[in-house]
Specification:
Layout: E1 4-13, E2 17-27, E3 32-36, H1 43-51, E4 58-63, E5 66-67, E6 78-81, H2 93-103, H3 108-121, H4 137-150, E7 155-159, H5 167-182, E8 188-192, H6 195-201, E9 204-209, E10 212-217, H7 219-224, H8 229-234, E11 241-248, E12 251-254, E13 257-260, E14 270-275, E15 281-282, E16 290-301, E17 304-311, E18 314-320, E19 332-336, E20 343-346
Parallel strand pairs: 3-8, 3-9, 6-7, 7-8
Antiparallel strand pairs: 1-2, 1-4, 4-5, 9-10, 11-12, 11-14, 12-13, 14-20, 15-19, 16-17, 16-19, 17-18
The structure holds adenosine-5'-triphosphate (ATP).
Protein name: Sugar ABC transporter ATP-binding protein
GO cellular component, one term: ATP-binding cassette (ABC) transporter complex, substrate-binding subunit-containing
Organism: Hydrococcus rivularis NIES-593
């Protein structure tokens, strides 16, 4: 058992820079947790705190029930994979993979068995005698992963391991990663700012912003029920449409169109309406709830199209499979905003996005 627990972690640097303010979370054995957030939100700092490469200003890191704050990185039995691969250039692939085991004086025969097993798992058998400079980016990344796996650590930490790969290779290695970690019975913490990686690889996603945990949930819940306006805008591509609307009684007002609000304990005077581009229908057959809009941009994404529509003075992006082409620019369309797919967030112009909580 090597459950990872973070208790009220805080990291403060000089000049009052606080990349991690107060973060608590748990990662169970066999769970794949992704730390997702924009650049500078504290993801790598949090990972370095877990690895022991940084000391927390406050809080505790617990691995397998034991507080490890005072244990040196090398003695934590944590394996870290870096964006830069960090391979030893003068060593062969095989030597790179087995270096940590030699250092720990693991018997030679056991090293050989573990090396062969991990090389097979990652398809590296043919490359064991090459130097890192003789490998492609994808192959180097596989060696970096092999080096982590062969150690059989208590916790795996991966810091943007795919970000040096081109788009196609990234997709390929991403699915390989999923396969590799599927059978691992250890906690995995994976850092990325790429939401596709977060959504496809993880059991749990922790969205970070401003040094704080904004939401910790399954990928589906993060998508379907974002906890605040920051998460709503950060997860999803293209971004969720977010409109600030005035309210009157139990309705929100979009031009002369009224959208019925759920029954909130107190009805707000202003609100933020969120609707994902893929949840809006254009020219639906049933038109009781439609509103007219004018198409001003059509962008083709292969089979799907992104349609920008101006509706009662507001701009909406729609993602659709309808056979719409550039000729539609300037046309009037009927737009349906299905009530059950609308997300409502508290609006207060003084509050930052991550403090505008979900209302429904
Ligand atoms: N040693 C340090 N001293 C001072 N400030 C630091 C130090 N390390 C990181 N920071 C600051 O802490 C903040 C968070 O950095 P961190 O690397 O954790 O972000 P990140 O979310 O991983 O970003 P990215 O996705 O760009 O790697 C940044 O503003 C960074 O400048």
């Amino acid at each position: 058992m090597a459950k990872l627990e973070l208790h009220n972690l805080r990291k403060q640097y000089a000049d009052n820079i606080v990349p991690v303010k107060d973060i608590s979370l748990e990662v169970e054995d066999g769970e794949f947790l992704t730390l997702l957030g924009p650049s500078g939100c504290g993801k790598s700092t949090l990972l370095r705190l877990i690895a022991g490469l940084e000391q927390p200003t406050q809080g505790r890191v617990v691995i397998g029930g034991k507080t490890v704050n005072k244990i040196a990185p090398g003695d934590r039995n944590v394996a870290m994979v870096f964006q830069s691969y960090a391979l030893y250039p003068h060593m062969s692939v095989g030597e790179n993979i087995s270096a940590a085991l030699k250092l720990r004086r693991v018997p030679r025969t056991e090293i050989q068995v573990r090396l062969e097993s991990v090389a097979k798992k990652l398809g590296l058998q043919e490359l064991l005698y090459r130097k890192p400079s003789q490998l492609s980016g994808g192959q180097r990344q596989r060696v970096a992963l092999a080096r982590a796996l062969v150690r059989e650590p208590d916790v795996f930490l991966l810091d943007e391991p795919l970000s040096n790969l081109d788009a196609l290779l990234r997709e390929q290695v991403r699915s390989e990663l999923k396969q590799i970690f599927k059978d691992q019975q250890k906690p995995v913490v994976y850092v990325t700012h790429d939401q596709t990686e977060a959504m496809t690889l993880s059991n749990q996603v922790a969205v970070l912003y401003d040094g704080l945990l904004q939401q910790l949930d399954t990928p589906y819940q993060i998508y379907a029920h974002p906890a605040n306006q920051f998460v709503a805008g950060f997860v999803g591509s293209p971004q969720m449409n977010l409109l600030e609307l005035s309210c009157e009684g139990n309705t929100a007002i979009l031009g002369d169109f009224r959208i019925v609000l759920p029954a909130f304990p107190t009805m707000p005077s202003q609100i933020v309406m969120g609707i994902r581009p893929e949840d809006i229908s254009l020219n639906p057959v049933e038109d009781s709830q439609t509103i007219e809009g004018r198409v001003y941009l059509v962008e083709a994404l292969g089979k799907e199209k992104l349609i920008s529509v101006r509706v009662r003075g507001s701009d909406l992006t729609v993602r659709t499979l309808l056979p719409i082409d550039q000729n539609w620019e300037g046309e009037t369309v009927k737009v349906m905003l299905p009530n059950q797919l609308i997300h409502w967030f508290a609006f207060n112009s003084n509050l930052p996005l991550h403090q505008r909580d979900r209302l429904n």
